[in-house]
Amino acid sequence: MDFSAVGEKIKELRKQVGLSQKELSHNICTQAQISKIEKGEVLPLSSTLYLISQRLGIDVNYFFDIGTTPRLDYVIETSRQLKAARRNTDYETIKQIVEAEENNPLFTRNKRHYQILLWHKAIYVYEVNKDFPKALELIEEAIALTFDKIFTEKEIEIFISKGIFHYEEGLLEESLKIYYRALAHLQKIPHLQDETIKSRLYFNIAKALTDLNEYDSSISYCKEGIDWAIQKDNLYLLAHFHYHIGYNYELQKEFKLASNYMKEALVVFHLVKDSRYTDYIQEKIDRWQEDYKDRLPD
Fold first, then answer.
1. Is 178 exposed, middle or buried (0-12, 13-18, 19+ CB in 10 A)?
2. Fold of 3-68
3. φ, ψ at 13 (rounded to 5°)
């Protein structure tokens, strides 16, 4: 463990958030101890490092990575690029990044870093190479690198990808089993670093339930997703949840309810400046307005 690297990062983060050494040390340790830590003279106990990380607003694992991984900034940036490509469904870029880094010691010598590469390799193997068995093999290998008894957030995210592969293969009941298992593990985590994981899990469960014609259950999960988004003051997938509720009602030919929820979805899509689906949704609403004008609100 590189004491000096950890100390330098604590000092850097402390200054970024505008804390003095005395303020950082309050109810954690002495100011003198913080001074020694920042100078690299001592490494704090894990419990002390955890409290420091909480006050600085970061994951404690970041400090352990700093102390054990040279060029952590490079690993973090690569992971950021993979995440962005995953969110944009840019699977060719994922493939290029993974192939460029899979023999890089910065990743191969650290299980958690290598896990990220294996996970994204599974994604491009499925989405680009269309090799479902190999993608599942890579997913299991990635999870096995770090899994103990309870999934971490990262392992849950990887497990969600496994569910998505099954869903896209039309294996709906199996995908639901995977999602439900992930949800059970998620509920055992007392504090989520990434609150959008729960939103994504609810949404994927809702989609699979809809395809199994379990519309009421799908709507219930969408409403849980909406409540979660409001509780966390986060717009992520909020529009999609409203749209999907409307879609469930559309499939049941309850067009008034479908129209109401899709109008709410449009409001949120406009709010977040996401126009990918707005024309399609508006066309649906307009068509229903014309076909069922006696039953739909203006």
1. buried
2. 434 Repressor (Amino-terminal Domain) (1.10.260)
3. -70, -40
- How many angstroms separate the most distant Cα atoms in the chain? 77
User: Angle CA(153)–CA(232)–CA(273) in degrees, nearest 5?
Assistant: 100
Q: Rounded to whole angstroms, how far apart are CA atoms 195 and 203?
A: 13
Q: Over the stretch 11-36, which tens digit does the pLDDT of each residue have?
A: 988 998 899 999 999 999 999 999 99
Query: What is the C-alpha to C-alpha distance for residues 84 and 233, in angstroms, rounded to an integer?
Result: 22
Alpha carbon distance 266, 246 (integer Å): 11
Q: Cα–Cα distance between 215 and 83 in angstroms, integer?
A: 31
| Angle between helix 91-101 and 72-87 (nearest 10) | 160
CA 101/CA 97 separation, integer angstroms: 6
The pLDDT tens digits of the residues spanning 104-157 come to 888 888 888 899 999 999 999 999 999 999 999 999 999 999 887 778 899 999
Contact between 88 and 48 under an 8 Å Cβ cutoff? The reply is no
User: 3-state class of 189 per DSSP?
Assistant: coil
The set of residues, in sequence order, having a beta carbon less than 8 Å from that of 87 and lying 6+ positions away, is none
Torsion over CA: 250, 254, 256, 261 (sign): negative
Q: DSSP labels for 49-93?
A: HHHHHHHHTS-THHHHHHHH-TTHHHHHHHHHHHHHHHHTT-HHH
**What gap in Å lies between CA 210 and CA 127, rounded to an integer?**
23
Distances (CA, A) of 63 to 9, 17, 55, 127, 214: 8, 17, 13, 34, 45
- What phi and psi values does residue 186 have, to the nearest 5 degrees? -60, -40
Count of beta carbons in the 10 Å neighbourhood of residue 141: 15
Helix locations, 88-214, DSSP H: 91-101, 105-108, 111-127, 132-144, 153-168, 172-186, 196-211
